[in-house]
Amino acid sequence: MWNGISFLVARNAMIKRLQRRYGDSVLIAMPGFGQMVLVSTPEMVKEVYTAKPDVLHAGKNPLGEVLGKGSLFSMDEERHLRERRMLLPPFHGERMRSYEAIIEEEATRGMAGWADGVEFASIESFQAITLRIILRAVFGAEGRELAELEGLLPPMTKIGQQLVTAPILRRDWGRRSPGGRWRRMLAQYQRIAFKLIDDHFADPNLDERIDILALMLRAQLDEGGEVDRADTADELLTLLVAGHETTASALAWSVERLSRHPEVLHRLEDEARGDDNALRLATAEETLRVRPVINATARLVMKPFDLGPWRVPPGHRVVTGIALMHRDDRFHAPARAFDPDRYVGKKPDTYAWIPFGGGVRRCLGAAFAQFEIDIVLRTLLRNFELQPTDAPSEHEGFRGVAFAPAKGGLAVVRRRALPLDESAEAEPAAVATS
Fold first, then answer.
1. Got the DSSP string for 172-238?
2. Helix/strand/coil (H, E, C) string of 380-406?
């Protein structure tokens, strides 16, 4: 019971304490989850992420139970691999880069209301920005449906986080209970999602649409099968949950870290004058290392699983300690330092840097999330001066799905008279006339 309470209240502190006492592999009895094996070295993480899909399952988990049977989080083995293959192409390459205009437009729109010199919690703005990006890029929503989903999904996400954290709340205890409210909101969401799906099918230009829903529908039709609207709605909700709160939290952490590291901030401002983004990408990677928004991933053992010198029996869960490894000097020295230069021109280690998990269960939208963070930060840097602070670092706050700055990533900004990219273009003309 004490393990369960500690895990809910202060899981990062708990697993760090267990590692210090017992080492890099720890067996924990966790109420509601059974026996859990926590591992925190790249070697053992590699064994977990490269295990065969029939040996370790990830589909039985609280998030998958809340999102429904059509969610990628609820699937395993062949069904999971088939669904993943269908969803992966839109999140990579030229297809992904086609969303740059949407991302920049929504970032600019979301930042338009930022007031000069007034401290605010940046995560609230980033949540609104990332929500609209997903609704447009993934759902292809516009007009009335966009407005309805924009109003429905934030409170729905908040209740969903409660249901994930405390399974007892999933039951419908009455109209005002979290479970009851969730069911009503889910029915409303499905009505809107079904309408979007039907509108896509009725669109004579479906083949030319670039939103991910259109690509999903075309892929399902190409396979010759019928489109299950309920499963498709579940998958859309999964993409929203996986990419909304997490990306907003990562952006809030970026603001929190940069406002405390002015030397990095100034270099990023210089970079933002042009088209380079090597330092910005490295900064996003370093932020995800020092402040991972997901602190662990879990797998359920289905067949005897060899892990290091042990054989883990079926029924146990194997948990990879993301935060533990990211803050370990053995793998990221000096681990406590915020140093984006460690990733400039080099890729992080596949099994020591794992903010998106790994293997066949690696976050489907990892590349999209990093691309989105890059464009949103570029928009911020070009249009605003982020004011440095000497305030203490914000603690981590668990929000049901992701870890975010406890105070919301407090920021103070001042709008630039001329955006950095425009001022860079204007400089030669100024010199020529002097």
1. --STTSHHHHHHHHHHHHHHHHHHHHHHHHH-TTGGG--SHHHHHHHHHHHTTPPP-HHHHHHHHHH
2. HHHHEEECCCCCCCCCEEECCCCEEEC
Question: Could you tell me if 375 and 100 are in contact, meaning their C-beta atoms sit under 8 angstroms apart?
Answer: yes
Whole-number Å distance between alpha carbons of 30 and 68 = 24
Mean pLDDT of the residues in the chain: 90
- Cβ–Cβ < 8 Å for 306, 50: no
- Helix locations, 35-177, DSSP H: 42-49, 62-67, 77-87, 93-97, 100-111, 122-137, 143-165
Mind listing the pLDDT tens digit for each residue in 9-67?
456 677 777 777 777 888 888 776 789 999 999 999 999 999 999 999 999 888 888 89
The whole-angstrom separation of Cα 145 and Cα 93 is 28
Residue 206 and residue 155 in contact, taking contact as beta carbons nearer than 8 Å: no
Cis peptide before 348 (omega within 30 of 0): no
Task: Give the residue among 149, 147, 104, 163 at the shortest CA–CA distance from 129.
Answer: 104
Q: Quick check: 136 pLDDT over 70?
A: yes
Structure tokens belonging to residue 95: 């297809």
415 phi and psi, to 5 degrees?
-70, 135
Residue 224 vs residues 221, 367, 386: alpha-carbon distances, Å: 5, 29, 52
**108-to-103, 105, 271 alpha-carbon distances in Å:** 9, 5, 19
- Domains, the chain, ordered by start: 2-432 (1.10.630.10)
Distance (Å, whole) CA 9 – CA 408? 18
Q: Helix or strand or coil: residue 317? A: strand
SS3 for 346? coil
Q: Could you tell me the CA-to-CA distances from 39 to 301, 305, 333, 426 in Å, in that order?
A: 14, 14, 19, 54
Phi-psi region of 400 (alpha: psi -120 to 50; beta: other; left: phi over 0): left
* Secondary structure of residue 279 in the 3-state scheme: helix
Q: State pTM to two decimals.
A: 0.92
What is the reported pLDDT for 430?
42
Q: How far apart are CA 294 and CA 213, in angstroms?
A: 26
